[in-house]
Amino acid sequence: MKNKLLYSSSLLPLTWYFVFRTSFFMLLLSLLFISCKVYSFKDVTIPPEVKTIKIGFIENKARYVNPQLSPRLTDRLQQKINNQTRLTRTTSDDAHYQVNGYISQYDVSTAGISNQQAATNRLTVGVHIVFRNTLIDSTQQFDVSRNFDFSANLSLQQAEGTLSEEILRNLTDEIFNRLFSNW
Fold this sequence. Notes:
The protein is α/β, with parallel strands linked by helices. It folds into 2 domains: 1-39; 52-180, Lipoprotein like domain (Double Stranded RNA Binding Domain, 2-Layer Sandwich). It contains 3 helices and 6 strands; from the N terminus they run H-E-E-H-E-E-E-E-H. Strands 1, 2, 3, 4, 5 and 6 form a 6-stranded mixed β-sheet that branches. Helix 2 (69-84) runs parallel beside helix 3 (156-180). 16% of the residues are buried. Residues 32-42 have low confidence and may be disordered.
């Protein structure tokens, strides 16, 4: 009986030694990756030579114009880029990155039918973005489109009131990810 107690109590310091050693190794490895810039926790990819960005006003060219969407989307994109990158915003045409775009789609359609009546409507919002890198003289264009479902009992204006934050957040995140995270 005494041998069993002696044996199990002698394993306790050995177990703590392995836990400490493993933790220390993981910490050291994490510091190495961070200091070498091999891994970034933000997943934002911006070359070190890029310093400035110009963000143009996102116009509303959709058939139906929500007058609040364009300025609010432009503002949200500017805030997100300002808060989550090291880039300096400028109004100069010689900015390293230039982002322009327009709202290309703002359409309502029926998404669900119940008892031969519309039960769910869908608001589809699309944005066309033009991204120019002046350092390597390249231009990319892409479209971002999101669907937002709402009850058919609501008018479009009522739905816009409840969906506006979700629309802005989703479109801003999608545009940001396409610009900086290579998604």
